[in-house]
Structures
1.
Amino acid sequence: MIRTTDSRSADAAARALYGGARMSEQRSLIARAVLSATGAFTADELHHRLRETSPGLGLATVYRALAAMHAAGGVATVGERGGSALLAHCVRDDHHHHLVCTSCGDVISVDCPLGETALAAAARAGHLVTRHEITLYGLCARCLRAGGGA
Amino acid sequence: MIRTTDSRSADAAARALYGGARMSEQRSLIARAVLSATGAFTADELHHRLRETSPGLGLATVYRALAAMHAAGGVATVGERGGSALLAHCVRDDHHHHLVCTSCGDVISVDCPLGETALAAAARAGHLVTRHEITLYGLCARCLRAGGGA
DNA sequence: ACTGAAAGTGAGAAGCATTCTCATCTTGGA
DNA sequence: TCCAAGATGAGAATGCTTCTCACTTTCAGT
């Protein structure tokens, strides 16, 4: 395997994304691309990015690696863009959601805004909420300052 | 056009779903199926249901009619099931969300649980939330009483 | 280091929901 | 009634994602 500078710590971080499963050179590359990604990405975007340095990498491999990381909690689905799932690197293991910046694509983790009281209306009516999905879109602080609000 | 009992009021209700656009026999049938649906449905489910009485009805026609109703605000996307979009009849024109009963498929409209304070965390960090999507899954009061919680 | 079974890979086919194309009706205002 | 805009049905096309298959790589146990 070709090793680059800082490969040991990068390997450890990459391996962590898969939750300790078997590691291949391709999965390592994919994990590093996920770790170095700024913000959200689609599987296809990640594949294109990786193709620049690894022309032989298959799209199915990217999907499989992302699925493995998803299962291990290393990446999360944070929304959708143009019909494709938007993914992002995520290490928080507590319950939270994501704010996707529609300007730069960056992803900010936010605490779940749904508390006991917020769901009181449903509870009062006798319903039980067992699962919820929240996706937030907006502008991150940087883009907001840069004039995104103009 | 074949007319059934109560067709005049049904027509009016059906027409309203499209927001006053041109009306065809097929669109009328589709709108009535939407109005009589109990809970959420996918485009394909609706098509199958309609096929029983209207064998010639095309799937594309159902998709087009649903898109028209969606644009007019007569139906809303309330979640997803097995890769297909879950739709439901919805007439509330204020901002709200939907609770999909995972047992019977019924859909309950709920007020948006996100208030000013709920988004304070994002605001404090300097971010701006411009759009959000919330999908709630759980059990409706009826299924809960019927032992769904067992 | 060697071995073998389990797991990963690449290419392309397949699956699926949804949209588009096009020739042919319908609709509804003039 | 007339007719242009709009709707329809069948199937092709599209795009995302998953599966298949033959082959290669990984790694625990030796």
Note: Helices of chain B lie at 7-17, 25-36, 43-51, 59-72, 120-124, 141-148.
2.
Amino acid sequence: MEHEPGQPPVRNLPPAKEAAGAAPRRKQQVSMADVAKLAGVSSQTVSRVSNGSPDVIESTRRQVIAAMNELGYRPNSAARALKRGSFRTIGVITFSLSSLGNMRTLEAIALHAARQDFAITLIPVTAPTQAGIQGAFSRMGELAVDAVIAIMEVHLLDAATVTLPPGVKVVVVDSDAGEQYSVVDTDQADGARKAVRHLLDLGHETVWHVAGPEESFASERRAAAWRTTLTDAGKAVPPVLRGDWSADSGYEAGLRLADEPGCTAVFAANDHMALGLLRAFREKGKAVPEDVSLVGFDDVPEASSYAPPLTTVHQNFADVGNQCVDNVLQQIRTNTTEPGITLVPTQLVVRNSTAPPKH
Amino acid sequence: MEHEPGQPPVRNLPPAKEAAGAAPRRKQQVSMADVAKLAGVSSQTVSRVSNGSPDVIESTRRQVIAAMNELGYRPNSAARALKRGSFRTIGVITFSLSSLGNMRTLEAIALHAARQDFAITLIPVTAPTQAGIQGAFSRMGELAVDAVIAIMEVHLLDAATVTLPPGVKVVVVDSDAGEQYSVVDTDQADGARKAVRHLLDLGHETVWHVAGPEESFASERRAAAWRTTLTDAGKAVPPVLRGDWSADSGYEAGLRLADEPGCTAVFAANDHMALGLLRAFREKGKAVPEDVSLVGFDDVPEASSYAPPLTTVHQNFADVGNQCVDNVLQQIRTNTTEPGITLVPTQLVVRNSTAPPKH
DNA sequence: TTTGTGTATGTTTGCGCAAACATGATTGGT
DNA sequence: ACCAATCATGTTTGCGCAAACATACACAAA
């Protein structure tokens, strides 16, 4: 078993770390030990400084910090996580990011979490099926996140079938899982009520509704509130039209509504469908708001540039995101799970698409 | 070294782990050792099975897998990362998610990365300043990501001032850092050229341009291509109007353009500004496309519902995202850094907002 | 037989950090 | 003066995993 001297495979020994120009084995991560050596203290003291322990005298702390800066030390989060059993990471499960609301919410979550020094790991659900969701939650498990925020918009979170590691806190956005989990959501019902009341207060006999898809919680809640607001006011409840949130589906619905003689007021479940309705009314020669009044939902930034500028219900997505993070961090801190629903209020923004009916 | 037969190596006593009803210290993570004990093998064999090593005989593998399932074993990614120096994680730095393009790109990145078994960590830039970006990159360092995808849209990535851990691969979206980093971007110039050519081919004398903000790379590239396409065609180059991407700013620009007598064709740098232009033209009594033709950029889903449906340049954000991930994974695999630019083509979508000029 | 060549598995080790404990240096109270 | 109670800091240990190395056994070629 000889091996030629002078040849590289000298493995048995890890020594000679600082041998001449030693090749950096891995990303030459600067470790606590390096900082400790430079600062002339023990690595534990470096750890203490790094974690802001009060038990370090000021002069020592300064030395250590100087050494850290000189070497460009960054604590290794893997080791930290291994030791502490926590990554300070929140997993966010999303279905689809292509809706404005989800994105805004996600952005707020990321920003707010960063402020509290938590990182965000994005877990997209690859397919909107139970299996897809299972997969997402299972990946969460491997990633050892401290908490999960699920941005669900469809009826797929059957809690019974999802198993997460114990101790992981969950907050769900836009769901009806309030019995099991913390839920944060826009106050859809109140928003819809405001929209319908606004139209009724203008003097309309009743209000038609173009709803979103049935699988959507938000859509169902808006539709339900529309219905009860009408019945509470003693008004007739016209049949519901259904779209899929897209402007095109709103256009389809608009073509039909334009032929309804008694239709003077419409509440669309989102702004994009309202845009489609506007187009349909325009093509059919129905003036908005003179012939038909229209209210949307969301208050997308372009809503004020629609023709005419759209009266709509403003959602505070940023608040929703912030609430999610606060809620989840609260659960982590207190190590409790607190089911319940947090509702974020909406505002009615009145622009030019609504007016009293002609007589 | 002798060790007593019959007794497990009871050295310093981490005492009585399975003592009566021992409180689960942490989240009772099932570890390899637990699986190994149940399966009657060494933990190294469990590791091999877990990593799909071929050196495990089929019967053993099955036993181990059975044990894993029984205990619900999930490899601990912290330990794995600590050992391997890699989390299989890509950090994504974003400025703002509120633009449609960014969020589509992000979604594609997340999905594509998940397919290759990489996780995504979102790092929001808290403030659009050098310091903010520094902070984001520095956080990347702590998180020990394997690669970074930066979705930048403004001139702030001054590579000289950003230090990341060596070995971390970077891809930048929408930037001109092609000398230093890999850059993936929509082919802005070609898209803009197509838009302008389309209008010129319809017979317009020249094409006006409503650009985005100067800080935006995309905006600058579209404007430059607009200019060269005009000069190459021997046409006059009208003054540039500038917006901030918002529909409102497009409206402002539109009010001014409506008063330009020679203006029969406009290229707006994005669809939202085009929407604002449409509104301004409508209010000023200019018919689109009869009096003025208009082309946008982006092809937002609602563009077909604008009044009139908008001719625009379609961007393939999903392709951009996929390219980013492919590129970065390629760099990781080959451990190379390859500066250069990858351009994703666009398509001109002709709808009803463009027509030949009246004479 | 011996020797080699695999192949499947076990054992040791250390990644970087921080809890737990140990030590040594100051205080202050009596 | 003494001891005890603080403090600041050092030492040891192990988190869960996988690379490196060691071993044990099977089988083929000499």
Note: Chain B has three domains: 32-75, 86-185+317-343, 188-316.
